[in-house]
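subagent[fold] <- orchestrator: predict structure for attached chain, return tokens only, no commentary.
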Amino acid sequence: MPSTLRRFAPAKINLGLSVLGLLPGGYHALHTLMVPLDVGDELEVSPADTLSLRVQGADLPTDAGNLVYRAARAYLDAAGEGAGADIVLHKRLPLASGLGGGSSDAASTLLALAELYPAAVDLHALATALGADVPFFLHSGPALAEGIGERLTPMTLPPLHLVLINPGTAVSAADAYRWLDETQQFTPPLDVPGIGTALATGQPLPYFNALQAGVAARHPEIGAALAALSAAGLHSPLMSGSGSTCFALAHTRAQAQETAAELQNSHPDSWIRAAGML
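subagent[fold] -> orchestrator:
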């Protein structure tokens, strides 16, 4: 058994997010193209007699109030494992930012424990019970997510280079969906082939985020972030997920890196990164 496993927990963006309507139980029917990025959190997972969690880089719960702890507990129970794990979460992504950080951390925890304590456990079922975005992070590469996000179809996309900007605002996903429910402005499916073609040709992407209008109406800093990305010469600016991180695409990796550095200088209080598809 390895002494310590180190796992990268990637962020994601949504290359478009359509909310088709409401489902029973308060869930939403989604149609979204999710892409893992080469920026994210990190975890260290070691075998131990009991389960413990430490968090570095953010003030987060270290008990069942943390999705990582719940994921670990769920796996150990499902595996019938009497031992535990010592988990250290190095939090590098902003909180409640639409980048899927908590979901990715949970999925990475499941994968790490499955390696530490192999057992006939249905990871996808555990992931779905933990949250709609968690199953996506069990797999590598882009995927079209449908249903509540648990129905995944792997996709092949051209490389992409982008800049992320988070203005420091935490947005609750529950709030973002509630604001959409209040307007009932549900949206049609995404033009996934059109998105792929635009990525391949460097053209503006024909996408939208159904949650963006409601979030931006209550958080003007979202609109300011989108405007800053456009003014910097990037294209197809969009809010990711339920916000508050926004992104836009560059034509090259060098352009993304140079633009991110320039934006960080002009917006020192924002979290800004150049990123690519993992």
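orchestrator: received. Logging for downstream: The chain has two domains: 5-153, 157-276. The CA atoms of residues 27 and 148 lie 7 Å apart.
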